[in-house]
Amino acid sequence: MQRGRRSPATILRQLLLVSRTPLFSDNKNCAPKKLYAANPLPLFEDENDGKTKTEWKKRRQTTADELKPPTTNTNTNQQFSMLTDTFNRHHDYLRISLTERCNLRCLYCMPEDGIDLAPKDDLLTTEEIERLVKLFAKEGGVRKVRLTGGEPTVRKDLTDIVERISRIDGIEHVAMTTNGVALKSKLDALKRNGLKSINVSLDSLVKAKFEFMTRRDGLEKVLKSIDEAIRIGIETVKVNVVVVRGQNDDELLDFVQFAKEKPVNVRFIEYMPFNGNKWETRKMVSYAEMFDTIQKKYPSIARIPDETKSEVGKNFQIDDFQGTVSFVTSMTNHFCGGCNRLRILADGNLKVCLFGNAEVSLRDAMRVDNASDDVLKAIVEGAVKRKKAKHAGMENLAFMENRSMIRIGG
Fold first, then answer.
1. Measured between alpha carbons, how far is 308 from 65 in angstroms, rounded to an integer?
2. Three-state DSSP state, 277
3. Does residue 283 have a pLDDT over 50?
4. I need a labelling partner for 302 at 20 to 30 A (CA). Which of 150, 350, 391, 403 fits?
5. Which helix (DSSP H) or strand (DSSP E) does residue 175 occupy?
6. Structurally, what CATH architecture does the domain formed by 8-73+83-407 represent?
7. Which residue stretches belong to region Disordered (predicted)?
8. Helix (H/G/I), strand (E/B), else coil: 241
9. pTM of the model as a whole
């Protein structure tokens, strides 16, 4: 070994050291910090043990023993063992956050007092994103990639990213989650370059309420983007509605009517706790309550059989509807047992569970240590093998230290 070069094992240990600095700055007026640059969060934090908020803030050093994969005996697909966890869940769906920036300020996504955004240089480059997708497709069997944010349309190289990903061997589907405000003019180019489906976040069909929930104007632009996506033939158009009691729960039937008139899938999402979104149990409208309201108006509503065991939405059809309605029941009826998703955040951290606070930096492995694909593969596999069976439950999640939704991606 050449003098000065570190072994893969050394790189792994150093990448998984715990930061001694606070996760979030207490000074909201300070310049943005490199929160996850050289000191990523602990990879193997026991996030599902129901600890108190004070305990969640404690940081510890990952030991060498913890870098070893668990010894659980599982019958995994050896070809793609990199992305198969100890519960035999194979992760073939990769979600990539392209930016932390957004042109809206949604109440459930952006903390009221704002966040310190990562500097542009801390974000993954186009080339780094392409490299990681190639690795995940070749070594892990990833077949679907979803681009998220922040808001992905604020990134100038979005079309280039879509084109590069869609040409990678093994990738069968490129999707995007967007708020739709700046989408309409970009749709043609995105479709030409390989974008197959979109999820549009839309929480109110009432202008004043839309402006309250997003802290910005833009409802008409979003509606025009949805219509344009349908017109040009985007394969699947979904509308994501986060239902919050006292804010938009009175619009359930209006959104169902939206699905009657347009060939879209309207997805009602249970309100989920993330840093700074003031989540409370009483604000969450459960799937059962939403379904009961809709069934009273539309008794012909009927369940559509799941296409795969990794389906996150409970899908329904109603007689004489152009579209469909679904419910994403993350809080009251989780779907962790069939989870096939991993997340790469805008700053290059790998997050194996939406609700977990364990992360490891792939960006630093590539930039600081010039890691080979074999080293990256080992880092990813170690994280996946430590993925929990399920999240901690909504009451415990409310006290966990995690990122705000805007810094994770939809």
1. 36
2. coil
3. yes
4. 391
5. strand 173-178
6. Alpha-Beta Barrel (3.20)
7. 46-78
8. strand
9. 0.78
